[in-house]
Amino acid sequence: MTRHVALLAYPDCQLLDVSGPWQVFASANALSPQPLYQLTLVADATGPVLTNGGLGVHATHTYQQLPQLRPLDTLLVSGGSGVMQQRDVAAVKQVLCEIAPDVRRLGSICSGAFLLAEAGLLDGCRVTTHWRHAQQLADEYPALWVEPDALHIESHGRYTSAGVTAGIDLALSLVEADHGAELAGQVARELVVFLQRPGGQSQFSEVLRRQQSAGPLRRLLDRLHADPSEAVDLESMAEQMAVSPRHLTRLFKRHLNTTPGAYVTQLRLEQARLALLNEREPLSLERLAQRWRLGGAEQLRRQFQRYYGVSPSVYRQRFASSRAAVNQEDRSCP
Predict the structure, then answer these.
(1) How confident is the model at residue 330 (pLDDT cuts 50, 70, 90)?
(2) What 8-state DSSP symbol labels residue 281?
(3) Res. 305 pLDDT band, cuts 50 70 90
(4) Which is higher by pLDDT, 302 or 185?
(5) pLDDT of residue 192
(6) pLDDT computed for residue 283 by the predictor
(7) How far apart are CA 297 and CA 285, in angstroms?
(8) Residue 192 backbone class (left: φ over 0; alpha: ψ -120 to 50; beta: rest)
(9) Is the separation of the CB atoms in 46 and 61 below 8 Å?
(10) How far apart are CA 61 and CA 47, in angstroms?
(11) Residue 331 reports pLDDT greater than 50
């Protein structure tokens, strides 16, 4: 079955909010013996649409024609500086409200959430957006449950994502839901995506922040981040850097204010923390400890408590309870 996916663009939208998800679906088509997705770019008029980076994209349909494109499987609204002007366009909000009940998946990339929120299509939903705009979204639309530190979220059939490259993560998750993890992984490798990041992953990360200021350690850190479960020790890391173990320890202290071993442990703990939020594949602490080379379950508990201030079980329960609270308060989308 070929699923029809439409992306909504407008003047001064973010180019990567359009091209990123589009390429994910297009690459899925290229990797399949038969087309999996029919792709349509819509805007206020057909023809070129100038993005906020100065590069144009070409719309083949107007958003007024969206009802004629039924059945429509997925509709994604791009973000960008122009979205604030789009909030004042009654016609686009009217069409979105008209088509929403018939679209299996309605979502947004980055600040595109503002347009869906203005149309009342996210009321009561858990949503996210670019970290820079999260507080504004929460302030202007109190009916939304804004989670500012997620990459992408699904709530009652509504899909929202953080900024720019997170739209690729969202699209990969949709491909995975449609056709399985193997194809999504193939698409990610085809696009040379560094990692296929889960939606619960933080937009910010202490180890990622440190990676940005790593100086001469950057190449080593890139390798560690590519596969945190890789068996490494002080000697093997020093060998890769062509320095002595003592000098490597000094470099970590100077640039990252930590030790090589502590850095690797925190990196692995962050992967375990993200895995705790994976409701599709819940793993025992023993399995998590084995997967990320963190010793046994008890050692993982101690390290998790030390780094995050709570036990793994409490952390998992708090996340689950925050989602349950939404349902208990009967937060349902139109």
Answers:
(1) very low
(2) S
(3) confident
(4) 302
(5) 82
(6) 84
(7) 5
(8) left
(9) yes
(10) 8
(11) no
Contacts of 6 by beta carbon, 8 Å cutoff, 6+ apart: 39, 40, 41, 42, 61, 66, 69, 72, 74, 75, 76
What pLDDT was estimated at residue 187?
92
H helix runs in the chain, sequence order: 15-30, 83-86, 90-99, 113-118, 134-140, 166-179, 181-190, 206-212, 218-226, 234-241, 245-256, 260-276, 285-291, 297-308, 312-328
Which amino acid appears at position 254 of this protein? R
Q: Where residue 323 falls among pLDDT bands split at 50, 70, 90?
A: very low
> Which residue(s) pair with 48 in the sheet?
58
Phi, psi of 79 (to 5 degrees): -100, -175
55 burial type by CB count under 10 A (0-12 exposed, 13-18 middle, 19+ buried): exposed
Peptide bond into 71 cis (omega under 30): yes
CA-wise closest residue to 133 among 148, 152, 122? 148
Give the number of other CB atoms < 10 A from CB of residue 189: 12
Alpha-carbon gap, residue 273 to 267, rounded angstroms: 10
Q: Say how far apart CA 307 and CA 305 lie, in whole Å.
A: 6
Q: Please count the other Cβ atoms lying within 10 Å of the Cβ belonging to residue 16.
A: 23
Residue 141 structure tokens: 């639309």
What are the tens digits of pLDDT across the range 188-236? 889 987 545 555 555 555 555 565 567 788 889 888 888 889 999 999 9
Residues in Cβ contact with 278 at an 8 Å cutoff, skipping those fewer than 6 apart: 198, 200
What percentage of the chain exceeds 70 in pLDDT? Answer: 87
Instruction: Tell me the two tokens of residue 308.
Output: 């995050």
Q: Return the DSSP state at 69.
A: G
